[in-house]
Write a structure and sequence with these properties.
Length: 415
């Protein structure tokens, strides 16, 4: 779980040689007392400086060789307290990032192996795993492409432990990261797909859908991957019971490119039409719902809610009769209140039911799309509000004038 900071404090004292031996002695803890001297000895010998030889602290190549030997011995988190584990890895990161250039392929390979070792550790200490990886994430420069490698590992651990919610990952945060990271569009798309897949695997399908739209944005709109992702997005937009805003889909070139697909025409029904048109589409596309794994009952419920929302949009500030709702939804009048409660819960309509008058007084409603017709309706409402406000201002103005007239002044009581 990456923190909000981009720096990790390292409180390391001593020479390069002393710090390497500190790392080695930590690693030796997993061995028995008898085995430890034999484990440490090769490192001590490798750090010695023979006559005429540069000290290891002044020889980058020797430093790399020693550090590689240390890295080969890192198996999981080691045997220490959380503070010791964190300190070990922070010191290791500090040496890695000081010796290897941030964008070098060699560093990428080293970190990939190190991440694999950390993530495969049998330790049940999930918080320290997150902290160790987050420290590495924050130690890397903001624009480093290696940040995506580290966070992908964090995601994999969270998915395996069904702990994705604890990361508190937000779409704005992810968008910020990929705008900073020095990655190609293809690499950014791959990272976004991994995020979308992570949410899908943990059952957070609405969030997965949101990230899938970002993924599609990064794909070449005419590629096979974009077409496949666009069709999947159309299917999910229809399938997910809480997705009612379809406008983001139509801002994607890859989605427009599959306008010949049958699901595209079905989505048009959900944007513009009602239950009758949905039934007509189903009749003209036998077997299509099953082919795409779509549940007819879910779709029918969704199209009824959208139809009711469209009716409410036409009656904002007015009463919408139960009979008109029942007719539009093709249900009995006795079922109307249940559907109104559902549409209010879905956040599509705001209003108040009246059983006595058999009306829904609509205070607010969400339009399925916002095009020429919706702009015209909005203009009419604004004009009506403007006229109403003008009338209120006239009443206030008249009241002020009357307040200043002598005949309007109340006599004061005598002293």
């Amino acid at each position: 779980m990456a923190s909000q900071t981009d720096s990790v404090s390292i409180f390391a004292e001593g020479t390069f040689e002393e710090q390497i031996l500190e790392l080695v002695n930590y690693l030796a803890r997993t061995r028995s007392e008898e085995e430890r001297p034999a484990f440490v000895a090769p490192f001590e010998n490798g750090l010695k400086t023979e006559e005429g030889q540069k000290p290891v602290s002044e020889d980058p190549e020797r430093q790399k060789a020693v550090l590689k030997d240390v890295l080969q011995q890192v198996q999981g988190l080691g045997d220490g307290s959380e503070k010791e584990v964190e300190g070990f890895f922070n010191l290791l990161y500090a040496h890695l990032l000081s010796i290897y250039p941030p964008g070098s392929p060699e560093l990428r390979e080293i970190l990939a192996n190190l991440l694999q070792s950390i993530s495969s550790s049998p330790s049940d200490q999930l918080p320290i795993k997150y902290r160790v990886l987050s420290n590495l994430f924050n130690s890397l420069p903001r624009n480093s492409p290696l940040r995506s490698l580290v966070y992908t590992t964090i995601l994999q651990i969270a998915v395996e432990k069904d702990d994705l919610r604890s990361l508190q990952l937000t779409k704005s945060e992810v968008q910020k990261w990929i705008s900073e990271w020095d990655l190609s569009d293809e690499q950014k798309a791959e990272f976004l797909k991994q995020v979308a897949d992570a949410f899908a695997k943990t059952g957070q399908l609405a969030q997965s859908y949101e990230y899938s739209l970002l993924y599609i944005q990064k794909l070449p709109s005419t590629s096979d991957a974009a077409r496949e992702a666009a069709v999947t997005a159309l299917s999910n937009a229809l399938r997910l019971p809480d997705v009612f805003d379809f406008d983001p889909l139509f801002k994607l070139d890859a989605v427009i490119a599959v306008k010949d697909h049958e699901l595209f025409s079905l989505l048009q029904v959900f944007i513009n039409n009602g239950l009758a048109e949905f039934k007509a589409w189903e009749a003209s596309h036998p077997g299509s719902l099953e082919k795409h794994g779509l549940d007819r009952a879910v779709l029918e419920h969704k199209i009824r809610l959208l139809t009711l929302a469209s009716l409410a949009v036409q009656h904002v500030g007015q009463h919408l009769p139960y009979a008109k709702i029942a007719e539009g939804l093709e249900v009995d009048v006795s079922e109307v209140e249940k559907w109104v409660i559902d549409v209010i819960r879905a956040g599509l309509v705001w209003g108040k039911l009246s059983q006595n008058t058999q009306n829904l007084h609509v205070t607010r409603a969400t339009s399925r799309s916002f095009e020429k017709e919706q702009w015209a309706t909005l203009e009419k409402r604004l004009q009506a509000w403007k006229s109403g406000l003008t009338g209120v201002l006239e009443v206030v103005s008249n009241a002020k004038r009357m307040g200043g007239h002598p005949s309007a002044v109340q006599p004061q009581a005598a002293a």
